[in-house]
Amino acid sequence: MKIKLMLALLLCSTLSMAEISTQNIKYSFERNSTLSKKITTPNKPMTLVKPAAPANDTPIGELAKSKYFLLFFFDSKCPHCQDFAPVVKKIEEKYGFTVIPFSFDGIGLPNYEKINYVTPKIYNTYYQTPKPFYPVLILQNSEDMSFYPVANGAGSLEQVTQMLNKYADAFNNKETYAVKGST
Question: Would you state the CATH architecture of domain 2-172?
Answer without folding.
Answer: 3-Layer(aba) Sandwich (3.40)
